[in-house]
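Teaching note: in complex prediction, the entire set of molecules is handled at once rather than each chain in isolation. The prompt given to students was simply: 'Predict the structure of this complex.' The entities are:
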Amino acid sequence: MAYTPHTDPDRAAMLAAIGVADVDALFEDIPAAVRAAGWEMPAPLTEQELRAELSRLAGRNRIPDVTFLGYGAYRHLVPSVVGEVIGRAEFSTAYTPYQPEVSQGTLQSIYEFQSLICELTGMEVATASHYDGATATAEAALMACRLTRRDVVAVSTAAHPEVRRVLATYCSGPGIEVVEVPAELAAGASGQTDPSRVAELLGDQVACFVAQQPNAFGVLEPMRELGEAAHAVGAQFVAVVEPTSLAVLESPAGYDADIVAAEGQPLGIPIAFGGPWVGLMAASMSAVRQMPGRLVGATRDGAGRRGYVLTLQAREQHIRRERAASNICTNQALCALAATAYLTAVGPEGLREVAELGATQARHAAAALRSAGLAERRFSGPYLAEVAMTLPDAGRRHASLTERGIVAGALLERDYPELADTILLAATELTTDHDIARLVGALGDVA
Amino acid sequence: MSIVDERHPAAAGDPSGRGSAFASPSAGAELTIVEPTIFERSRAGRRGVRFPQPSAAARAAADDEPGLPEAARRRVAPRLPEVSELELLRHFNRLSHLNIAIETAFYPLGSCTMKYNPKVNEWAARLPGFTDSHPLDPEVLAQGSLELQWLLAALLREISGFAAVSLQPAAGAHGELTGMLMTRAFHRSNGEGGQRTKVLVPDSSHGTNPATATMVGYTTVTIPSNERGGIDLGALRTALGPDTAALMITNPSTLGIFEDQIDQVVAAVRDAGAIAYMDGANLNAILGRFLPGAAGFDVMHFNLHKTFSTPHGGGGPGAGQVGVSARLEPFLPRPLPVLRRGDAAEVLRNAWNGRATDGATFGLDWDRPRSIGKVRSMFGNFGMHLRAYAYIRANGGDGLRGVSNDAVLAANYLRVRLADAFDLPFDRICKHEVVFSGRRQKRQNGVTTLDMAKGILDRGIHPPTIYFPLIVDEALMIEPTETESLETLDRFVEIMHDVARQAAEDPASLRAAPTTTPVGRLDEAGAARRPDLRHRFGVAPVPGGTPAD
Amino acid sequence: MSHPGDLRYSKEHEWVRIDGSIATIGITSFAADELGDIVFVELPEVGATLSQFGSFGVVESVKAVSDLYAPVSGSVTEVNPALADQPELLNSDAYGDGWIARVELSDTAELDALMDADAYAELTA
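The expected output is the structure of the full assembly:
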């Protein structure tokens, strides 16, 4: 037992107080027929042995020297202060703030998180967090079904495949039909979702239309027009967004989105092989009682001091049980705190710089590949910091570059068979001129 | 603010050794004032982190590409705070002082397993080889992440006795959702999808169980508890039928009691053709003593943040892995980490004995046609997986068994030591937690369990869980865990006796508690009637929220 | 606890006041006390049809939630607009300003299935 404080005399004293001879007596209520016979488990490790084992595993991962891989998970600078804040045990080793008088640190930081997400999205209310962007999107769709009392969900195929997969799983539960609106992917097409296709395909049983900005190919969608097409049939418009882009792209409130869902990982959270990340969700106050997940509100104590509490809890499972808005309980509070610290550390100027640097370097990479005669932009639609390029013989060349420690973005064919020989390159503020030169050079070498 | 309440000597000694925000006279006013929001600390033009400017070459190349269309541009900038790094740290550090946490004080929050979160786990989680591993990297670059997941799944199978494990669910409730979706897929595959529509749930269950059943389109049937705190087997047998999809049962239960007829419960459920789901929230009590998979359960979720010591984080991230029996295995979420090359037994032997596994290669198996699909993007909360792996390896099999021994020992010790002060609705051997009732204090002194919890706050520790499970009047649910010393447990006994004494002798003062915390009891009704859920810029609080920008 | 003598009561703790063909509906002060501080009332829509003892809305307190059951059948003609901003009226004036909805009665015989004040007082004693 690596972490228990008890000495044998301590245990003897407790057994004596309880009045049993040995600890086995405390397990006699397990029926003999189903008592464990034994197990094959490894021996305990000391800290130095454990460090060696975890270093071994971390060392088996090869972190590329140069990477243009994004496609839903983005490498950004995590400012040192962010790690410092979330490393504080007063935050990390507390739990859900059930006793507000001794949880004001957690509660106020969540209130600040909600406020920051409202500012970024322009919406009126944001939840305390969800598991990730995909589950937040799925919950947003279910919320739209409750709000509209309809049971069909429509989604653009240009929404990230991971988002669509999770959406499909969640909708399969209550038997909600998912309709996909195909994006314009033909050679020379925009790579966008066409609002007129949305208008054609959406019927009056559709609860919501889900579109992503920028979409899975990095292309900017005509969000206002897509939202209008959804609203025309009385459906909610669910916008899935990338949070750092909101420094420069129109806020979802600006194009009349009804519900916003997002993956918050780019806000100071390491990629870490897929998690823990944090899902963001925002909406209007009129929809708040159908929102899933925790909310923190400001109030006062008896002496008039400002304080914070979990509020509108009657929506939640521990009170409403089988009629709750969702079964969500524990969420991603510490990751939400990281996002709060991140947005505070970079401020409005810093976030704009992050978005613009990514946009500049994505263009730099696209221009460099084009002028080297290696690759052309796949789509005609506008983009921000991620760009799809047609690269002949992409699979082989991508694999060759991997061997050289360079990840030449994502191969889109795996998820979109019609996008053969298409790589998706992501740039962030960490993408250097040298990275771009190495990508171009190496791709030239394996031509 | 005065700190030491002279009426209650227990408050004078700080059993927590916790920081001073709760007001020791020497703490100084700085730490006891209310911290303004980060927005109120903001000053236009102040900066924290700065970023490099793009090179002239980059800008020139970028100018050859199309820019951002005007219609896509944001019109009103978000009003993020503008502060220096030092001001940021002061703000969050001061906020942190307003919290009680495991590392600052005893935190016997029942059902939550607030055990020590080892620091070596945090060291491991911050290794760049893990933090910079991209989930969509080619498999050849991610062998360490994939091997760790494969090894953890192997350990969780052994710990639970299940045939297979998915690491994908992100929290306990998410694991429940996964389990219920698999339940439905199973019945559909047998042609019974339309017929099996009901999920049975004991009246002592977590609220997540019935909420989950609803999310999957099932209706919930509540099964009563018997007079000994277990599920009423007769009522269960009556409720089971061809329309039953599953029983969801927490074992040990939320009363801290092992279901001593669990073999008959499982047999009855399986005989009815239904799925036996075990809520594994309380696994910390039975490691090495009861293997749910071996005992006939079909599916269980683990809570890595409870049993396997990953930090609770103020309410997440959690991790809710699911183990399943062979008949549910085809329905697990995809993908699953698999060994692509190598001999499984040899890889495990090498890994368990500190030897390299370099010859083995790992991958992700997406080819699972009967899978329920994905419940989360990518592969789950990997950072929690690696912490749990570290914890299990640090303890080893014997250590994990010892964890449960000591957790159960501590809970029973508190059961015996506090039985004179509080009513014990189910007076029998408990497992990891013990549930008392404050009904005696309510009846005799007009003091509620809430009042007593607030009185406990004035003594510098976190109170137990209150008002849960719902079937115990004025419930006080105490889970000490295995990582609290006998001195801490004894101090807690003193505190609880002192609170009971205060309830009897001076109930009015208890109803006014807490008085030593950063804020007193807050107006929760006001918060819910007129929600104030976000900072307002230069506007006095308005009922009903603010309009969008 | 005493309850107004001119009202009829359901065992689900709703009251009804009859004024011609219009029935005003609310929850009893006993129910309001049991729920504690009421923070939200989900009201039916005007024009909705209620059936006797059927659920027609929800009332929430800080830590509990409870269905509202119609004591009589009928079509909703009016809902109490003050409750949106002041749900606490259910606590402070359950039989007056805290009324919930008015309905056009469809069957006066249904009133026979309800209790008078004394019977209700006995039920809640």
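Point out the following to students. The longest helix of chain C spans residues 29-35. Helices of chain C lie at 29-35, 89-92, 117-123.
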